[in-house]
Amino acid sequence: GFNSIQHTLPAQTTQGELTGLVAALNEDASIHGILVQLPLPKHLDADAIIQSIRPEKDVDGLHVVNAGKLAIGDLATGLISCTPAGAMLLVRSIHGEDLSGLMLS
Under DSSP, is residue 34 helix (H, G, I), strand (E, B) or coil? Predict the structure, then answer.
């Protein structure tokens, strides 16, 4: 099992407040993953928040380090986000391991 902590912030939360929370979670050794529920309110810079998450704690795989590793096929050290990973498990359970020639629409 695992523990989950939800931080529900008010809509008027500032960029600095959210950045500070992410920084505190990054430094907390008992926190192993950070997920930011997107979209954020328009006054917040979502990309800056996502990039402030340590790559090893970025469970969505949106940090440039994780996205870059995925783009070059580095599945050994890169992080694959749970949604596409789950989708691939489902597709492979239906169509088998060899997906060459499979047309998706």
Answer: strand
Q: Which helix (H) or strand (E) holds 17?
A: helix 15-27
Q: What distance in Å separates the CA atoms of residue 41 and residue 2, rounded to the nearest whole number?
A: 29
pLDDT on residue 85: 82
- 79: nearest Cα among 34, 16, 49, 46: 34
Domains of the chain, first to last = 15-95 (3.40.50.10860)
Q: Tell me the CB-side half-sphere exposure of residue 48, using CA atoms within 13 A.
A: 11
Greater confidence (75 vs 63) lies with: 63
Q: Residue 105 pLDDT > 80, yes or no?
A: no
Pairwise CA distance, residues 102 & 105, whole Å = 10
Both tokens of residue 39? Answer: 């979209």
Per DSSP, 101 falls in state: T
Identify whether 84 is preceded by a cis peptide bond (ω within 30 of 0): no
